[in-house]
Amino acid sequence: MDAVSARLPRQSPVARGADFLPAESPCAMAPSPLSEVPSGRRTISSGMSIALRRGLVLAGTAALTGAGCLKMYEVVEVGGVTVLEGIVLVLFTILLAWIAFAFVTALAGFGVMLLRPRETIPIDAGGPLPVLSSRTAMLLPTYNEDPDAVMVRLRAMIESVAGTGQAEQFDWFLLSDTTDPDIWIGEEAAFLALREACGDARVYYRHRADNVARKSGNIAEWVRRFGAAYAHMIILDADSLMSGDTVVRLAHAMEQAPQAALIQTLPVIVNGGSLFARLQQFAGRLYGPIIASGNAWWYGGEGNYWGHNAIIRVAAFAQDAALPELSGRKPFGGHILSHDFIEAALMRRAGWGIYMTVKLGGSYEEVPPSLIDYAARDRRWCQGNLQHLAVLPARGLHWVSRLHLLIGIGAYVTAPLWLAFLVLGILISLQANFVRPEYFPKGFALFPSWPAQDPVLAAQVFGATLGLLMIPKLLACLATLFTPTMRRGFGGGLRLCAAVLVETVLAALIAPSMMIFQSVAVIEILLGRDAGWQVQRRSDGGISRREIIRKFTLPTLCGLVMAASAYAVSLPLLAWMSPVIAGLVLAIPLGLLTAGRGLGARLFTTPEDRAPPPVLLRAKVLTEAQRPERLNALVELRDNAVLRRQHLASLPPRRSREPGDIDVDLATARARIAEAGTFTQATRFLSRRETLAVLNDGAALEQLVALPA
């Protein structure tokens, strides 16, 4: 597939009528068989330095894991290792390897932030803005999002790119999979207002009635129909913001690196309103760069893709990243939910480079406003990541790509492993306290077998493990304190240290609840429960006290059971497990506290709060402007003749149906309209599905609005 360099003609929002889109440039895109290695593979050289870096990371992880496993064995081997102790030792080894890998990566990131070596994909983040010669499409897939909020962010980005003087190199596409009738018509109304506000910007809207394969299918459908007209595409989320400077530099980096299929930026969390969102924003801004720098240091050309705020070469994506449909039933079968990791792995399998840049700023996103919303999003991601188990054996994948998949799987599997580790520890203590030990096992023995563990060595192992968890936070804090501009951005050294201390305590209290939520998610998936495609709540204040209490009842009960079990053994054991037990028992108060708006804004300040970049300031100004009143979809179309005319023109041609193939929802809606005497009577009894059927059928809609009000 060769990119078409000719510019698309300037057209109105309804140039083609059927799609609000410009003329199509078809592009072939067929699913990539996981059992076949693509022919004609490109080759990129990782270099000896990258191989050495990876060796150091893996060797450091193995050394720490081996040392910790040996010490843990010495803890439990006194008097012989029982079955339960053997299981605990295995779980400890797996979990320690997970912690050690993150620690070594953070250590590497600390070195990178101090020494500032050249990135694998060099991007000049501070020099003169380069001039582009290629065309890039900006894709924003959306699903039942607040249309006005989406248009605000889109407009801020369009204006930011226009400020670079290179707006003619970018086309903007709002790709809607929305299924809510009111939001759909709200999108169309907001889009027409956006087109009027942005003047000459080439921005297009398309609503997909059949949202097969969700977000990945949405993007793939655009690639097949329009991808050949563009060299690159930048994928955005509904909450994404990117500065024009960053967009231009990304496109130029792709022009300068023909071997690159994808460059992933590091999105910075902004606009946190609740305490939970502020915690995530602060932690991501402070700790995120050190982890990301360490990852990018050993990734080389075998990086990963996070699904948004990244630029992709359209030719590479079309040729090599089409997703297969997994065999079997949901939740493991069907379309892949976490498509981003797989798309990156498939393009790398074909020989393309997948890169990550940390030094290039100007990339932003938002975070769910509460722990409940975060857990709901995590549930979907958990199912998508566990689907990667079916992709791991695929032929031809680079071993680093397989490692990315394993890390994604481990992000959720480790939660039930931690829970099992804690439960087994309590069971061993209960067994030692209430079950009579066998001092003289079967067979001849001169001396009794004393079932005991070494408490001093156990405390040392615990302290070392805690150190592996805490040192990356301290390193990130030190790296920030050593950088004057960053230190001032966090409000000064004293405020930064206080914020790190409070964040550490709150994060430790929140972590046990997340462990329960993720463990339940893994169990549900293993039992065959599909997550579906739920609407993500982004605004603050939308969660009720009753919902918080209901959702956090399970973690609270788990904490009470753990507390009772530990107390039954001894007070020292209860004190030993108090960090976990406290987080669970206090789950409901913590849920209420962290969902509160306005808390923590002064303490958990970030550089983007103290010196907001222009694109964030513009989005904030547009957000604070008076929003138009959105009516019921059918009422809006009845009262707005221009919007109705545009909507009718955007509908695709009616497809012919086989005899007996009846659209029940449309037939029912037509019957209700025919029986009604007025518009109000007809719309009062239409269900959501019937309303969608009317909105997708021009004749039925015209029949409805013709009724007297």
Determine the mean pLDDT: 89
The description of the largest β-sheet is: 7 strands, mixed
Give the strand order of the largest sheet, numbering strands 1, 2, ... along the chain: 3-2-1-4-8-6-9
Radius of gyration: 28 Å
Beta strand % = 5-15%
User: Total number of β-strand segments?
Assistant: 10
Helical fraction: 55-70%
**First-to-last CA distance:** 53 Å
Question: Would you tell me the structural class of the helices and strands?
Answer: alpha/beta
Overall geometric form: globular
Pick out the low-confidence regions: 1-19
Number of helices: 27
Model description:
The structure is a single chain. Helices cover 56% and strands 6% of the residues. The protein has helices spanning 47-76, 83-115, 147-162, 181-198, 214-226, 244-256, 275-299, 314-320, 339-349, 371-387, 399-434, 455-481, 484-489, 493-526, 545-551, 553-569, 571-576, 578-585, 587-594, 607-610, 614-624, 633-639, 641-650, 664-675, 679-684, 688-695, 698-705, and strands at residues 136-142, 170-176, 203-207, 232-235, 241-242, 260-264, 268-269, 310-313, 353-356, 363-365. It has a 7-stranded mixed sheet with strand order 3-2-1-4-8-6-9, sandwiched between helices. A 3-stranded mixed sheet has the order 5-10-7.
Question: What's this entry about, in short?
Answer:
The chain is of the alpha/beta class and 709 residues long. It has helices at 47-76, 83-115, 147-162, 181-198, 214-226, 244-256, 275-299, 314-320, 339-349, 371-387, 399-434, 455-481, 484-489, 493-526, 545-551, 553-569, 571-576, 578-585, 587-594, 607-610, 614-624, 633-639, 641-650, 664-675, 679-684, 688-695, 698-705, and strands spanning 136-142, 170-176, 203-207, 232-235, 241-242, 260-264, 268-269, 310-313, 353-356, 363-365. Mean pLDDT is 89; it is low at 1-19.
